[in-house]
Each structure stands twice: as structure tokens, then as C-alpha cells.
Predict the 3D structure of the following.
Amino acid sequence: MTGKLPSVSSKEIINALLLAGFTYAPKRGKGSHTALYKVVEGGKKRLVIIPKRKDIPKGTLHAILGQAGITKEDFIHLLKG
């Protein structure tokens, strides 16, 4: 059974991704966006761009999870800490 994605802010997404091993990419995120990255298998980097908003639209959240390579279920688990 798949969980339904909750309404989340950019800060909640960033905290969840930091728990998943992502770190800030200071030279990439500017102004109204934050950039995080994670080194994955083969030494490749997975870059995620998160808009700074109070409520992130569901479609944007799906795109962010796709960029991060995280399932909905794993994301919900990360939100719970």
C-alpha cells in the first residue's frame, strides 16, 4: 500500500533530504531556490533543486523526489524523522 504525500514546505523537504544523506550545494542554489546534492554509486552526483515556498505543489514534490531518487514511502518515513 502506498502512502499519500502530505502537503509540505521547502524546509520540510530540505530536512528530509538532509536525513537521506544530501548536503547543501552552495554554488548552485541562488535566490528563491535551494540546491542539495548527494554522491551516489560510481561517484556521480544527484542534484536536487528546491524552490523556497511555504507550500510545495504536489507535482513539484513528485519532481523533487524523482530528482532525489527517493520513493514516496521513503520520503514519508524521512519526514517522520
Q: What stands out?
A: The longest helix spans residues 58-68. Strands lie at 23-24, 33-39, 45-51. The chain has a mean pLDDT of 91.
